[in-house]
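Fold these two proteins, one after the other.
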Amino acid sequence: MQELEAVVDLSRGGAPVDGAELSLGLSMPGMYMGESRAAMRALGGGRYGARVVLVRCLSGRRDWVAEVSARLRDGSEARARFPFEAAE
């Protein structure tokens, strides 16, 4: 297990978006690796961060998906998924 700092830049129409509520979830496709969800804190300038723990899979798999959920001040919501491979 390793704690990581995840950082997301949120923008709309090319302009940074502040004042949103963001959360980050980590999952491994097709394999339950426990619940890993964290609220993201505002860092300023449309940037948000969270500390998350990435669990090492005993099978050796390293493919993960980060899903960011955002609720903007105007009540609209957005989600984005980012597949990635963890370093050894």
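Now the second one:
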Amino acid sequence: MSYGTEKYIKASGKERMVSYCALELASGGELLDFVMHTGRLQEQFARYFFLQLIQGLNHCHSSGFVHRDLKPDNLLLDDDFNLKIADFGFSAPVWGRDGLGNFVTKLGTPEYMSPELLLR
């Protein structure tokens, strides 16, 4: 993974700084597609992916961020079937935007939301 900030020059000639993050290729596709094509996971594979998911989330949380849109569509696989968490578009600081640890925005995919979020 590489990341940084570079100067970007618009067609109008205006300059502005942009941040970027380049990630590795996840050529194994989405976990959702993998399960759809292979059928339900055997317990050993489910445990393998779950452990990697928990380790990835632990890293995110200890770095001060929550994902807020976890679903099989946002879990990618590399060539060696290692799990990669993707799409941090809804991520936010662990302590929330208000600093109190409360999140009030209802976002994400309704099919994956908990009932208590859907009822809000």
